[in-house]
Design goal:
The protein has about 375 residues and is an alpha/beta fold. The protein is about 55% helix and about 10% strand.
Amino acid sequence: MDQNNKLSEDIVHLARLALSGRAQDVQVFIHRAAKRYRGELPELAGELSTLLREAPTRSTPLRRKNGNPVPVDVDSRLQLVRLEHVAELPVEPIFSGSTKTALAQLARERTEPDRLSARGLAPTRSALFVGLPGVGKTLAARWLAREISKPLLILDLSAVMSSYLGRTGNNLRQVLDYAKSEDCILFLDEIDAVAKRRDDTTEIGELKRLVTVLLQEVDDWPETGLLLAATNHPDLLDPAVWRRFEMLIDFPMPEPAEVKTAIQRFAGPDQDRLGKWLEILSHVLKHASFSDIEREIIAARREAAIQDQPISNSFERIVRSHIEEVDRSERMILAKELLENNVVSQRHANELTGVSRDTLRKLVKTNKGKRATEKESANG
């Protein structure tokens, strides 16, 4: 088929969609056409992409009183998604270097689209967040929504799963169709609940078909929207999922410096009371996720406020609750830090860390000797 015939057929099909009043299908078709003609008719493809970006949906229809209703489950009548018109961030998120760079790239693509358009490029339409629980994946979705001033739709796929898989499929399609018709960010949490490997012999046919539907939706996601998904179990995902998402962003566990920053940030107004406890807490929480650190520090602040006691007492409780997770060599380091910083007495250090009094005395004696040697060297 020559180019003119192909173009004629596309115009007729587009007119048919427009006359049927299916605005969402019109947008999907224009998006496909822009991709298809990018090589042969770059000017046409560019104009179509511009029309998509400047479509009326950019007036945030989610905020209109007469906007489309949020989809609900047919049985419970509960909303299938959580809608956040304005993303709320209790604290500024902490992202590692590569994660921060990738998220900043996503935000700039949406706030500076002309840079991409000038080179015949479209913004990233989909991104997959990979990482253990509590490392900031949901917070990152909220951060992006705030940065590009878009409403955020959050769908927990593990929650939408129904005992009747046919209903799960309908629920999923409702949400995807709704999100594609609105100017928003859709965040699919725990995507592995649906997008499992299709070669998994324990899964039934209906669930495998759900995976296929989801992959097709990711492929057809309009340029005007942004689809984000998150998984705690990347090993469970169908391999095709990895190929469909345009960007993969890894969320690692926090590094020691990030643990310290998180403790300070979650301490809020009590940050000045951390003092010498900052190093101690950073040590015992070094294997914790951001959400775990937040829970521990907020709980300590509440405890100190309710019991009207020094917050150092609550910090001690954190150390006690995590000391069993610390091996003997690390306990020695922790005991040394407690004593060197004059945080507690030898007896108290023994109670907190389990390191014997004899060992603690030897530590103190060794440290005094080292300091005396350093002083002599400094005096020449």
